[in-house]
Task: structure prediction
Amino acid sequence: MVLHIDMDAFFASIEEAINPRLKGKPLIVGSRGNRMHTVVCAANYAAKALGIHSGMPTKRAYSIYYKLEFVPADQSKYIWTSEQIFELLKGYNLPLNYASIDEFQLDISAYPDQKAVSLGKEIKAQIYANFNITASVGIARNWLLSKLASKINKPDGLTVIDDSNFEQTLRKVSLDKLCGMGGKDGQSLMAKGLRTCWDLYLNLPGFFDNNAGKFDENSGKSNEMPKSMSHSYTLPKVELNPQVVRAWIRLLSEMVAVRLRQQDLVSQTVHLWLDGPEIGSFGAQKTCQAQTNDGYEICQRALKIMAKLGPKSPKIRAIGVACGNLSRDIYHQPLLKEEIRREGLIKALDRINNRFGEGVIYPAITAFTR
Ligand SMILES: [Mg+2]
Result:
């Protein structure tokens, strides 16, 4: 059993907790100081209720509600709080995983089942008492389901998915809400007529079980495995052409992917960092159920993060791609035809580049970086 903790509107909640004047008012945290010329980096629930969400240009957010409260992002404050929460959770002496800045997982397999809910309640109460912010907890038999459960009753929720409500819960959740199903795999399954998580279960029952062994403890144990891998690049000038920006994201994604494969690692979290005159410093991450070390896939996830900035492509000066949530690449039989084909292609490309030199063969789009 896994107990997944997902902080509610983390950055915005921290700001509200620190400044009681902001409590309950629609609030956005901006990527940088200038409130009219940046991007929403986090929105509290009062702002979300108005249709404001992270990634939206602040100008747009203000056009929705002109009295919006604004605080510039203070990453060090959020990292500090995240680490304090991690320390608090260590106190439970259960295998613990730092999944992202606002998500944590406890392996509660050794914990009595009937006490799991009271443990979840206690953790929520502890977090609230110490930091004056709320978390949503999901409890289920594996990583994927517990993460899904944590999302169902946000904010301040506690949801258990077990045998008694498994079907009923999965029927209610549309497939694209499932971690890792927002992209191509999800679309191809939707095209086959699968609509809800329950449809997926009926077609691929193993999908919800394959993740059972996925829990990777990294609670500060000495571990030769790196925490993340990244590449970044500062462009010679501010780049206006979105194709060139996309080409760089692809190239950096491929560079990270090659290193992951060399070390037999796969990643679940992609972090994209962009810097430009209009957006300031923007960083966001996306965690998916499906592990990858495929540069194309990493790039697709990074582009999805960039899409949060809106339909208009911003001017870009520097780009970074990082992969986190790393684990050993344990071979699994690909489920979809497309995956089998990709796997063969990547192996062939690695062999060619190993034999004839790095970058002998490369994705066509990266030619725009030359
Ligand atoms: Mg969260």
In short: Residues 6-7, 10, 102 surround magnesium ion (CB under 6 Å). The chain has a mean pLDDT of 86. The radius of gyration is 21 Å.
